[in-house]
Amino acid sequence: MPVVPCKQCGTDFYVRPARHNAGKGKYCSRKCAAEAKRIKQTVSCPWCGRHFVKRAGQIYCSRSCAASANHAAHERHGSDERHCIVCEKKFTTGVSSKICSNACLARHRNGNNAGGYSLFEDPWATGEIPPDRYARDLFRMPDIGLGF
User: By the 8 A CB rule, do 26 and 7 touch?
Assistant: First the structure.
């Protein structure tokens, strides 16, 4: 069997004569073949300026440069002062929040639930839903025994 140098890494390896004659025995391993197929683009890191071979979707040379750039971008945006929609206090936030604390969030959720009723209140018993709706509504069907 002929000994052929790898076109990617340069190591010598054995190739079957039929593969060599067909022009297929160029790389010593699948890793070298995949590396040779990959388009290599050398770019400079926008954070540190170091040159590196770019992979798909890669912007920075390392995770530490990406984290540093991301942190600096958040620092530039800063935080603004807002008014809480529940207690009207001023508070500072870095995200788009309208409520200052977990206590105000709980008060906001308890006061603005779907129907405006607490868990144990019955709008049928208080008379807030008129009796003419009983027949049309699927929540409470008319009961002949009770008279409504």
Answer: yes
117: Cβ–Cβ under 8 A, 6 or more apart, which residues? 123
Q: Is residue 148 part of a domain?
A: no
Q: Do residues 101 and 58 share a domain? A: no
Residue in this structure with the two tokens 């008279």, named with its chain if needed: 147
Give buried/exposed letters for 96-126 (b at 16+ CB in 10 A, else e).
eeebbeeebeeeeeeeeeeeeeeeeeeeeee
Q: Which of 50, 77, 104 is the C-terminal boundary of a domain?
A: 77
Sign of torsion over alpha carbons 113, 119, 120, 125: positive
* Residue-level pLDDT at 109: 81
Residue 117: pLDDT above 60?
no
pLDDT at 89 over 50: yes
Q: What is the rounded distance in angstroms from the CA atom of residue 5 to the CA atom of residue 7? A: 6
Strand partners, 42: 53
Cross-strand pairs, 41: 54
- Residue 13: predicted pLDDT: 92
Kindly state the average pLDDT of the residues 15-31: 89
Q: Which helix (H) or strand (E) holds 103?
A: helix 102-111
Residue 87: pLDDT above 90? no
